[in-house]
Design brief:
It is a single chain. The protein has 369 residues and is mostly helical. The protein contains 13 helices and five strands. The chain has helices at 51-55, 73-80, 88-108, 115-125, 160-173, 178-192, 199-215, 230-238, 252-283, 290-299, 307-314, 318-330, 351-366, and strands at 2-10, 13-21, 304-305, 335-338, 346-349. The strands form two sheets. The protein has a three-stranded antiparallel β-sheet, sandwiched between helices. Strands 1-2 form a two-stranded antiparallel ribbon. Pfam families: Fic.
Length: 369
């Protein structure tokens, strides 16, 4: 990477700052090889539950891993139950998670990444910023109150078109292995920092989708940062931004983080398997209708339900919903609860699945190899 000194308008003043200009990737000789041993275990299906969707709250950016980290899963489930529960903080986090999931679909639905792909994804994940969905026109920086105190100062706006076109040509035309393209592309996009906000989220999505195209479901390697020094992650990013980094082995962070995620996923599936076995034990004691079985599958992703929510999800009428709910109440899988708001509203929750969810969350933040 090159460092240049330029005059930029920062907070209404002209200042001299040092900016980092990443190396062009197109036509460079890259000798990095990588192959990770992932998804080496069998897994079952747990109704509508998706582990990646479950983990989105820790990847969706903005306030999701900071102010909103203390939000309980029950508060989120109340908001998504369609009972009309008013909880602005939970509504905000659910919207972030949904935007992140939809932006991931934008990446995964295309075989060729375009500038429109990047802009559409950024518009979703940084929807709180009025300039989302466009390339920045101002200088930005990472960390510190001013560029001269920052951890990283990306290229000036006038360099962005060339750098983004170079990035697109690399990720779409390179003959390198998918994981090499994913990691180098992730690092390069972070260094370019082409958006006013949401750069980390877009780079995470790109990395996740490319790795999953080869390996199937994985736990995002960025979650490994929870247990490691932040500096190791920064070193892993910077490692491919230098000339010599394009001919050496990938930084050890990537192998350690992906293997950590793979082993963590095994443990998470063991917890899910125990929960599913307990549900099977409970329902084996009595005959269960097809609708009640379908509802159990839904509870894995939505452990709080109401009749309106089931109508929106399945198209069930009130009678069908009530019949399935009563079956699971009688089986001691669902329990009715009266809410303070909306006043006298009744929801039905599944403590068993919430207990499973709690074990999953606890393990994510405590698992170390």
């Amino acid at each position: 990477m090159n460092v240049i000194t330029c005059s930029q308008n920062v907070n209404g003043k002209k200042v001299e700052i040092k900016c980092v200009i990443p190396l062009s990737l197109v036509d460079r000789k890259i000798n990095i090889k990588a192959n990770f041993q992932l998804n080496d275990f069998k897994r079952s299906k747990y109704g509508e539950f998706c582990l990646n969707t479950f983990l989105n709250r820790y990847l969706a950016g903005n306030r999701s891993l900071k102010e909103s980290r203390s939000l309980s899963r029950k508060r989120l489930a109340l908001v998504t139950s369609h009972i009309g529960y008013l909880d602005p903080e939970a509504v905000d986090l659910v919207a972030q998670m949904n935007n992140y999931e939809n932006a991931k679909k934008i990446f995964s639905s295309t075989s060729t990444i375009s500038i429109e792909t990047l802009l559409d994804a950024n518009k979703l994940v940084a929807s709180e910023n009025i300039k989302s969905g466009s390339i920045r026109e101002m200088q930005n920086w990472i960390g510190g109150d001013t560029p001269n105190k920052a951890l990283h100062v990306p290229p000036p706006p006038e360099y962005l078109d060339e750098l983004i076109n170079d990035w697109l040509a690399f990720v779409n035309c390179s003959s390198l292995a998918e994981e090499v393209i994913a990691i180098i592309g992730h690092n390069q996009l972070l260094s370019i920092h082409p958006f006013t906000d949401g750069n980390g989220r877009v780079a995470r999505l790109f990395l996740h989708v490319l790795l999953e195209k080869k390996y199937g479901d994985i736990i995002h390697p960025i979650l490994y940062r929870i247990h490691e020094e932040y500096g190791e992650y920064i070193n892993a990013i910077n490692s491919t931004l230098e000339e010599e980094g394009l001919s050496n082995n990938l930084h050890d962070f990537w192998n350690k983080s992906l293997l950590w995620g793979n082993n963590l996923m095994k443990k998470l599936h063991e917890i899910l398997e125990v929960g599913q076995s307990e549900i099977f034990r409970i329902i084996s004691l009595r005959p269960i209708s097809k609708d009640a079985q379908i509802l159990i599958g839904h509870l894995w992703s939505q452990p709080i339900v109401c009749e309106l929510g089931l109508f929106k999800h399945f198209g069930w009428n009130f009678y069908t919903s009530q019949s399935a709910i009563k079956e699971l109440i009688n089986a001691n899988l669902l329990f009715p609860r009266k809410l303070r708001q909306p006043e006298n509203a009744i929801i039905y929750d599944c403590p068993l699945i919430f207990d499973v969810w709690k074990e999953l969350d606890n393990l994510i933040f405590s698992y170390k190899e």
